[in-house]
Write a structure and sequence with these properties.
The chain is an alpha/beta fold. The chain contains 5 helices and 4 strands; from the N terminus they run E-H-E-H-E-H-H-E-H. InterPro entries: Resolv_N, Resolvase-like_N_sf, SSR_resolvase.
Amino acid sequence: MLIGYIRVSKSDVSQLLDLQKDALLRAGVDAKYIYQDHASGRKNDRPGLNACLKALQPGNTLVVWKLDRLSRDMKHLVNLIDDMSHKKVGFKVLSGAEIDTTRGMTIIGSKSYSKQK
């Protein structure tokens, strides 16, 4: 089953939320399995994200529009991906790097590192 997560910060316009939701729907995520937050990506404790992570079961795939919608904190992002991997949960980013390969994880690490500088 596909489970989606979308996030906008308070400074983002509502159109970005609609854009993310439409992309997830086109990717096959059922609307009732899309979780959302209106919060900064630097804040790790988000109600929508927490509910989304709790709903994930082995064999599910978490789908996000862009990687920075999940987290802007490199350590948090790597921990989330590692936790999902251990739970046998897939992870798909619709726009950006593929992360299901070592090369993809290296790209993510370098992008996140450069954003933190």
